Structures are given as structure tokens and as C-alpha cells.
Write a sequence for this structure.
């Protein structure tokens, strides 16, 4: 018979300070008293997870595990790491940097961190809480440090300071290993050098014992080692190489350095560069800031002094900031080193400097102003002198070659302008004069003063100037961008070319001869012998006049000369036959005409070349 009327269960969830808190019931169903031998919490959890095996139907799912918040599970659980960071000390002469040891705490309940610096007695530094507890930023993106980012033997940067984590406590190690993190081996904590220095005991000043000074005085009195050395200071400004004598006194291991003076060396007669004294070789590290200009150096500031074994011939030696090279010693010094150190011989080293070979003077590149010869004189002397004149100035003085030239210009007004070229053989200079023409609208007179004219496409550093061989009938002379065509020459030019035929090409000489002696052939009353002796010239001139009458106004008259000159790089006046006919075909020259074929035959001194100078005359005005 059922007598129970209340079947309610006690509440297992309550609220404390606004938070839901799980609690264990104190009474059973309906308020009945619980038995003493009730099941434990582990047995209850096992029963909750056990799925019943039903005969009919699907088994019910096991209830989920009990939820425990993070602030409950990780309450009062903190990870502790030992770390340090280095801080510069720019205002102290005793320490350059400082090592500060800190403890980094990581609170698992809310992933916050704090940095604490243990208090050190008499440190003079405000210590304690270095960084208050909060979520520390990891980067600029907004991420924060997590316990997965912490490990031993790594550096972390917090607000611009880099901390080195060296170790952690036992709980931290067990927690990280349980989460699958492999910890690095621990490191030793770095110590502050200044703090460790202060822990050392104070120095005790005890008079050290020494050997018998009197015996050493009686043994080595008046025994001095003499070395000959040089100090080479030529690398510095106003430096030079000087000779010195170094004396080493065996009685008390003192050294003096004497200067070696010569007559009229211009130096003050000071006998000593350094007074007799002991020279330190290795100082203790703490003696770098020792005021040497005020106090004398004692044995406590020096680890090693210079001794006789440090003075060896052939080796450099630094004394008071100067490096001396020992190149010789006297006979007593050689005998002492042989008996004391077993060195059989100390040969003399030749330190005489050989004069360096003369430096070859190279001219700087030409800047384009003035003549190259005049500009080069500024490199030879501080006050430049005019360049030396050639000896031909005496042989060719007052000898001038004159030519008549026309200006090549697309301007119609320049078509009838004529110019007189004067080539001065003494100086290789050219002057251009334009005869004034009445009512022409152009002022005549000097067009170009005496100057040397550079050929086109000539290198700037080694220019090539126009010479007498470049002037002949039909030649094109380019003067500072203006092109002139030589039309005629005076009789002196012909006489000079015939007397110096080796300086001119046969074609150039023939062009001048045909031009100057042509009027004599046309006037029989003058009794010219040249027309009778050279019938080929008469035939050539007759053919040129015939072609000029027949092909007057032909379209190839404008640029035929320039087309040939492009292929004639050496300005010899000749081109090969294949190039000749190729140019004529491109310029529509009627080479099939019988008269033109005869002209080509007369302009061909050989089988492979054709003189285009006389050929061009037939197609020009």
C-alpha cells in the first residue's frame, strides 16, 4: 500500500551572487532522509553514463556531462615563469647595461597576465609590480597572449620590452605537458654584472714579496739592450718616417726612446721621445677608465709588462700608441739574445724606401671647348703655355691654297652665294670669305676666321682635321654644320699639287687639272698643249655637256652626290661597280642610255671601281 504523497526532488542548482552554482541535495525524494551508505559521486557519474539495455525500443542517450565554468575549473590556478630583460644604462661609467629579473604570471581563469619584479635590497630601483594584470596584446592585429604562446627558452615582447623566459615552476610544467606542449630545456638565469661586482669582497692591500733587487742591480748594472727602430707615419696628414733608438735597461726592465737627428733636418733638438720608465703591455679590464694622466700605473692595474723577449728584430712593437718597427740591434744585444733565449742570429732588415715609379700622366677627356691642343696645356702646367708650333711653319710660311665653293642649302637665296676658302699650309687653318654682291641683300665679308676645322664623325678626344688632300673639285667640306662644294681653285693650287703629288690622290689631282686647263683647251689661240696631249679630258667634258643638255631637269639631280658619299666612307671618290649600279637604279639614273654608258666607261680607270666625281657633274648644274 502506498502511503507516500510527496514525490518531489530537491533542487541541485542554486544561485549565489547572481551566478548559477551546482549543489548537492541534502534530502531524498519527498524530503526523506538519505541513507548513510548512499552512492558516492563517482558511482553516480558512472550510473549516469551507463546506457540501459532495453528489450524493446531504442536506448535513451546518456545525459551530458556536468558543465563546469572556466572560472570554477581554473580558479586560483596560475602559471609562473621566470624571465629577465636587459636595460641600457647610458648615464653610468661603471655599467653599460643592467639585467633585471622578473616573474611572469598567467591566470588561467581569464587569460590575463602580470609581470612582477622581485624586490632587491639597496638596488635603488622602484621594484614590485612591473605590469599590472590584464590581457597583454600580442600584435597590432588585436590578438592577446595565450598560454600556448609561452614556453621556456623563448623571447616575448611586451610593450616594447623583450623578456627572455628561462624556466617555470612544477605546476606550470605539468599543466603545459598535459596539454600536449613540448617544453624547451630550462636555461640559466642571467645575472647582473654590476650586482655581482658589488657582492665581491673588498680588496685587501698586501705588500707583495719580490726577489732580491740588490742582486739584480749588481748583476745587470750598466747592461743595456740597444735597438734601432723606425716609426712610419706617412699614412696620416703631414706624417713622415722617423728613426729612433730604443734602450732597454736589464737592471729594472725600463725603456727609453731617443730620437735620431741629422744635420739640417728642421727639427727641435729634443734628445728623448720617452723618458726611462716601465711600459705596460696588458692592462686589467677595470683599468680602462684609470686616470693615467694624473696617477702612476702600479702593478695592480697591469697584468703584464714589456720584457726583453718582446723586443725582437723584424717585429713591430706598439708603445704608447705608436707602432715602432725594429730593424736592427747592436752586437751586445745579439749576444744576449743568443745566450738568454737561444736565438742564434738577428739579421738587419733593410727599411730604406724605394722611390715609386713615376706616375704616367693621363689627360682627362676633352670637354669640347677650344682646340684639343690648347685644352691639354692646362694639364701640363699651372700657367698654361701655347702649344709648340710645327717646323713646317718655317717651310710653308705665307703659302695659301684658295678655292671657290658654293653653299649647299635648301634656301633659294643661298643658291647663288659663292665663298672663297683659304687653306694656310703653315698652320693647317681655314678661313672663309664671301665676296659682297651688290643688291643681293646679304652682307659679304669674313664668314669664318682662321681656325682648324674638324671632319664630321671624328672622335672628340682625337679629332681629325681637314688637310690639303681633302680639297679638290667636287669635294664636299662640312664646316660646323654647313656643307660647301668645291667648284674651282686657283693656278697655285695646281702647281702645289703637282709638286707634291704624293700628298694627293690621282683623282683629286685630275679633277683640278681638268678644271683649270679646260679654258686653255677651249681657246686654240692660246696654244694650249694640254688639250692636244690629253684627248680623254676633251671627250669627258664633251660627254658631260651633252648629258647635261639631254637630261636637264632629271629628278635624280638633287641627291645623287649624297647617295654616293654615304657609301664612300674614306672620301676617295670611288665606289665599286656593284654599289654604283645599285645607287643608279635606286635614283632612277638612265644607265641604259648610250651616252651615259660611254660616260661610265670614261669614269672607270679599272674593272672594279668607278669614279663618281665626274659622273655626278653630268647630273648637276
Amino acid at each position: 500500500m502506498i502511503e507516500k504523497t510527496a514525490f518531489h526532488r530537491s533542487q541541485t542548482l542554486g544561485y549565489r551572487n547572481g551566478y548559477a552554482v551546482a549543489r548537492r541535495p541534502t534530502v531524498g525524494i519527498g524530503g526523506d532522509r538519505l541513507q548513510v551508505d548512499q552512492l558516492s559521486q563517482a558511482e553516480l557519474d558512472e550510473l549516469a553514463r551507463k546506457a540501459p539495455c532495453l528489450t524493446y525500443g531504442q536506448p535513451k542517450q546518456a545525459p551530458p556531462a556536468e558543465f563546469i565554468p572556466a572560472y570554477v575549473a581554473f580558479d586560483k590556478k596560475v602559471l609562473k615563469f621566470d624571465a629577465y630583460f636587459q636595460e641600457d644604462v647610458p648615464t653610468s661609467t661603471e655599467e653599460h647595461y643592467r639585467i633585471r629579473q622578473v616573474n611572469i604570471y598567467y591566470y588561467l581563469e581569464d587569460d590575463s597576465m602580470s609581470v612582477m619584479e622581485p624586490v632587491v635590497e639597496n638596488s635603488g630601483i622602484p621594484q614590485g609590480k612591473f605590469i599590472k594584470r590584464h590581457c597583454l596584446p600580442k600584435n597590432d592585429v588585436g590578438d592577446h597572449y595565450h598560454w600556448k604562446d609561452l614556453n621556456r627558452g623563448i623571447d616575448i615582447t611586451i610593450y616594447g620590452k623583450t623578456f627572455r623566459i628561462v624556466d617555470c615552476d612544477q605546476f606550470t610544467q605539468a599543466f603545459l605537458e598535459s596539454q600536449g606542449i613540448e617544453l624547451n630545456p630550462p636555461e640559466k638565469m642571467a645575472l647582473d654584472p654590476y650586482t655581482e661586482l658589488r657582492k665581491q669582497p673588498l680588496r685587501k692591500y698586501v705588500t707583495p714579496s719580490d726577489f732580491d733587487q740588490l742582486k739584480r742591480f749588481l748583476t745587470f748594472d750598466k747592461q743595456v739592450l740597444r735597438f734601432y727602430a723606425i716609426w712610419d707615419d706617412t699614412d696620416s696628414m703631414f706624417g713622415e718616417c722617423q728613426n729612433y733608438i730604443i734602450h732597454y735597461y736589464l737592471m729594472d726592465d725600463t725603456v727609453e726612446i731617443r730620437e735620431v737627428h741629422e744635420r739640417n733636418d728642421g727639427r727641435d733638438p729634443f734628445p728623448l721621445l720617452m723618458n726611462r720608465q716601465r711600459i705596460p703591455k696588458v692592462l686589467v679590464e677595470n683599468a680602462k677608465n684609470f686616470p693615467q694622466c694624473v696617477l702612476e700605473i702600479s702593478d695592480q692595474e697591469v697584468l703584464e709588462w714589456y720584457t726583453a723577449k718582446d723586443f725582437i728584430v723584424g717585429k713591430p712593437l706598439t708603445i704608447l700608441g705608436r707602432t715602432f718597427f725594429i730593424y736592427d740591434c747592436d752586437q751586445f744585444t745579439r749576444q744576449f739574445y743568443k745566450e738568454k733565449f737561444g736565438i742564434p742570429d738577428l739579421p738587419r732588415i733593410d727599411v730604406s724606401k724605394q722611390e715609386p715609379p713615376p706616375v704616367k700622366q693621363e689627360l682627362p677627356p676633352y670637354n669640347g671647348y677650344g682646340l684639343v691642343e690648347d685644352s691639354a696645356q692646362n694639364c701640363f702646367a699651372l700657367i698654361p703655355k701655347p702649344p709648340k708650333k710645327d717646323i713646317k711653319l718655317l717651310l710653308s710660311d705665307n703659302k695659301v691654297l684658295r678655292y671657290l665653293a658654293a653653299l649647299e642649302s635648301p634656301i633659294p637665296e643661298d643658291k647663288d652665294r659663292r665663298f672663297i676658302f683659304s687653306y694656310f699650309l703653315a698652320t693647317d687653318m681655314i678661313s672663309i670669305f664671301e665676296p659682297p654682291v651688290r643688291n643681293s641683300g646679304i652682307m659679304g665679308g669674313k664668314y669664318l676666321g682662321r681656325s682648324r676645322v674638324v671632319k664630321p664623325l671624328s672622335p672628340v678626344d682625337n679629332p681629325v682635321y681637314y688637310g690639303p688632300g681633302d680639297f679638290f673639285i667636287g669635294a664636299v667640306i662640312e664646316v660646323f654644320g654647313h656643307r660647301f662644294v668645291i667648284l674651282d681653285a686657283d693656278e697655285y693650287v695646281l702647281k702645289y699639287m703637282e709638286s707634291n703629288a704624293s700628298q694627293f690622290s690621282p683623282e683629286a689631282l685630275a679633277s683640278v687639272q681638268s678644271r683649270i686647263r679646260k679654258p686653255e683647251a677651249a681657246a686654240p689661240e692660246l696654244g694650249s698643249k694640254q688639250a692636244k696631249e690629253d684627248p680623254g679630258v676633251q671627250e669627258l667634258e664633251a660627254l658631260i655637256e651633252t648629258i647635261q643638255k639631254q637630261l636637264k631637269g632629271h629628278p635624280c639631280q638633287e641627291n645623287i652626290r649624297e647617295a654616293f658619299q654615304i657609301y664612300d666612307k674614306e672620301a676617295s671618290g670611288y665606289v665599286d661597280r656593284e654599289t654604283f649600279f645599285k645607287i643608279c637604279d635606286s635614283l632612277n639614273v638612265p644607265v641604259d642610255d648610250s651616252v651615259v654608258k660611254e660616260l661610265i666607261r670614261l669614269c672607270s680607270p679599272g674593272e672594279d671601281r668607278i669614279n663618281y666625281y665626274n659622273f655626278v657633274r653630268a647630273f648637276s648644274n
